[in-house]
Amino acid sequence: MTSSPQTSAFAHPGGAAYAPKADVDVMRCLVCDIRNRSLCNSMDEEGLAALAHSSRQLLLPPGTTIVEEGEPALAFFNVTRGTVKLFKSLPDGRRQITGFADAGQFLGLSTAQTYSFGAETVDNVRLCRFLRPQLETLLSDYPTFERRLLAAVTDKLAEAQEQMLLLGRKTAREKVATFLLDRMKAFHQTANRRQEAENLASVPMTRVDIADYLGLTIETVSRTISAFRRSLLIASAENHRIRILSVATLLNIASGQKAD
Amino acid sequence: MTSSPQTSAFAHPGGAAYAPKADVDVMRCLVCDIRNRSLCNSMDEEGLAALAHSSRQLLLPPGTTIVEEGEPALAFFNVTRGTVKLFKSLPDGRRQITGFADAGQFLGLSTAQTYSFGAETVDNVRLCRFLRPQLETLLSDYPTFERRLLAAVTDKLAEAQEQMLLLGRKTAREKVATFLLDRMKAFHQTANRRQEAENLASVPMTRVDIADYLGLTIETVSRTISAFRRSLLIASAENHRIRILSVATLLNIASGQKAD
DNA sequence: GGGCAGACTTGATCTAAATCAAGGTTGCGA
DNA sequence: TCGCAACCTTGATTTAGATCAAGTCTGCCC
C-alpha cells in the first residue's frame, strides 16, 4: 500500500536535491519550458523574476514524500516534470489517491495549519517549492497570479466532482476506461512533441496506485486492462505507456454507454 | 432519481421570487443574519453595500433547479438559508451528489463557459445571485473578498478529497456514520441557537439523495440507519432531524475503527 | 376522515467486485 | 547472467451491497 524508503522534500534543506546557485536561479522561471502550461503563465518578466526568487527548485526520485498528512502546511508546490500522487488514508491503511499532479499542476494549497492529504512522487519529479509567507506575498503583489490560482483551484474542484461521479457511480470497466482516457489527455498536455503523444497514455504509476485512485483492487484493475487488451481497445507501448486503439469505444464505455 | 416540477432560478427575472424593492435592498447584506458565516465576512461596510448592489436575493421552494448541467455559467450564488444539492449525472440517469451547500456556502463557480454540474434546492432556500461580470468586478475591487473566495474554494477542495476517500474506500456503515456526523456539524454551524442543535443532525434530504451522495442504494441507506437506531447510536427527532446518541461510537465507525 | 401518492422499511435473492491463492514477468544489482 | 524482489496476471471462491419484491408509514387534499 505504501512505498517510500526515500527522503522527504524537507529532509535536507541545503542538500544536493536543490538547485545549487542562486544567481543562475534568477532566470529559472523565465526559461522554464512548461511555464505556459502552469500558473506561472499569469506573470510578466518582472513577476517571473519574483517567482524565481520566491521559490526553490527540487529534483526528487520516485517514492519521495513531498507532503505528509497532518504535518504543518509550510509550502506550496508547482510540478514542472514527472507525476505526483495525492492521497488520503484511513487509520487501518486503506488509501484513496485523490489525484495525480502532472507537469504544470500545483499542489499543497491549504487553509488549515496542517495538510489534510499526503503527496509522494510517482517517478522522477522536478518541482518548485514556495514557502507559505512567500506565496502570500506573491498573491498580494501580483493580482493576476492570484486570479490565475483561483481559476486553477476552481478547475481542480470540477475535476474532483468528476472523480466523485466515477467513484460513486461508475462500474470497474467504466472507471478504467475513464482513467486511460484521462492519462491520454494528461500525456497530450505534457508531451513536448505532440505527434509522438498521439493516442498514447502515460501510466507511470503501479497497479496499486491505479486501484487506490479508482476505488478498486489491483486484481480488478489488472483483469479489466487485460480484457481491454484482448478486445483490441488498447495495446502496451514502451516506457510505461498504453496505446489507445479505439478512443471512440473507450469514450463510450467511460461515459456509461452500453457499447463495447 | 429526479424531482423538479418547479421553476428555475432564471425563469422569471422580474417574478415574485425576487426581493421587490431596490432601495430596501441596499441594506440587505448589512443586516444579513448569516453574513459572518459566509464569504461576505471579508467585506467592510462599503463592500457590503457593493455586494447588495451586485446581487439579487431569491427565495426558492423545494425541488427548484438553480443550475443546470451544461447550461451557460452565468451566475454565482451564496446560500443564506436552507440546503442545496449539487450533482453530476451519467447519460443513463445514474447520479452522484457531490455536495450539499447549507446556509453560508457558495456555489456556481466555474472557469468554463458552461456549468459542469447541476444544483437544486432540497428545502426552502434563500440565496443571493451574482451575475458573472458583477462577481468579477467585486473580485477586482475588493482583494480581501477575492482572498476569502480563494480560501473558500480551497476548503471545498479539501472537502471533496475527504468525500473521495469515503466513496472509494469506506464501507456502507462507515459512509452513513460519516454522513450523520457531517450533518450534525452542518446543523451546528447553521443553527441560530447553539443549545437546541446539540447532538442533532439536520437531514432535510430524501433517502434517494443520501444514497446518491454516498454512492449507495436507498435500501442500503435505510437498512444502515435502521441498524444504528436499533443499536441506540441514533434516534429520530422532529423536523427531519436525527439525534446522535453516541457521537464517540459514530466517530469510531466513521473513521474505520472496528468498534461499535 | 378516507384515500392516495410519495417516502421509507424490510426481506429474499443475485452479482460485481473483493478476497484468497498461485504463478508469471521484469529489471536491477551482485 | 544469475537471483531475487517488486510487480503483474489469472483462476477459484466469497461477500457486501445491489436488485427485486412486498409491504408500511406519513401527511395532505378532497
From TrEMBL, chains A, B:
Domain spans labelled Cyclic nucleotide-binding: 39-108
Keywords of the record: DNA-binding, Transcription, Transcription regulation
SMART domains associated with the record: cNMP, HTH_CRP
A Pfam family per the record: HTH_Crp_2
PROSITE patterns: CNMP_BINDING_3, HTH_CRP_1, HTH_CRP_2
InterPro entries: cNMP-bd_dom (IPR000595), cNMP-bd_dom_sf (IPR018490), Env_Response_Regulators (IPR050397), HTH_CRP (IPR012318), RmlC-like_jellyroll (IPR014710), Tscrpt_reg_HTH_Crp-type_CS (IPR018335), WH-like_DNA-bd_sf (IPR036388), WH_DNA-bd_sf (IPR036390)
Top-rank lineage group of the source organism: Bacteria
Keyword Cytoplasm belongs to the record: no
Lipid biosynthesis among keywords: no
Domain HTH crp-type: 170-248
PANTHER family per UniProt: CRP FAMILY TRANSCRIPTIONAL REGULATORY PROTEIN, FUMARATE AND NITRATE REDUCTION REGULATORY PROTEIN
Protein name: Helix-turn-helix domain-containing protein
